[in-house]
């Protein structure tokens, strides 16, 4: 089944971005339109498009500049099979993670889901949170109090 959401990142140099995503992170190239500075990339079930600013069609807000870091306020969480392999490639390239490797558990209702994760900025400053799934476990910390009346859904 095709993904319902596929981010397209405006990038300053699609050759550099393509190299970063493919050689360091581990994406594979599905297809490209070099004349437009466009590439469609895949990593497991994750799909991502990169598109060079100023080539082909550039989606831009009128009057807004493309200033570094791009994508402020968002991080793309990408599930991978082995975070260590990616960290080793990044270290060999001299790239330091934005968020160092950690094990983190997130509450989801009566359970917790675990991630072994780190975050790294791509060449244009987009934050990628790469994680390895650690599974689920019962929520073990003390109750945090009642859910807000506005948040009464299944995950509250």
Automatic annotation (TrEMBL):
PROSITE patterns: VOC. It comes from the Bacteria. InterPro entries: Bleomycin-R, Glyas_Bleomycin-R_OHBP_Dase, Glyas_Fos-R_dOase_dom, VOC_core. GO terms for biological process: response to antibiotic. Residues 3-133 form the VOC domain. Keywords: Antibiotic resistance. Coiled coil: none annotated. Belongs to the bleomycin resistance protein family. This is Bleomycin resistance protein. It comes from Phytopseudomonas flavescens.
């Amino acid at each position: 089944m095709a993904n319902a959401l596929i981010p397209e990142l405006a990038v300053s140099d699609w050759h550099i971005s393509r190299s970063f995503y493919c050689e360091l992170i581990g994406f594979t190239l599905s297809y490209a339109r070099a004349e437009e500075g466009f590439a469609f990339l895949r990593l497991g079930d994750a799909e991502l498009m990169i598109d060079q600013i100023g080539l082909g069609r550039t989606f831009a807000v009128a009057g807004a500049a493309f200033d570094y870091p791009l994508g402020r306020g968002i991080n793309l969480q990408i599930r991978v099979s082995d975070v260590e392999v990616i960290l080793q490639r990044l270290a060999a390239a001299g790239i330091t993670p934005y968020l160092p490797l950690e094990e983190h558990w997130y509450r989801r209702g009566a359970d917790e889901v675990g991630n072994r994760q780190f975050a790294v900025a791509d060449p244009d400053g987009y934050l990628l949170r790469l994680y390895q799934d650690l599974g689920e476990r019962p929520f073990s910390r003390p109750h945090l109090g009642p859910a807000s009346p506005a948040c009464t859904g299944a995950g509250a």
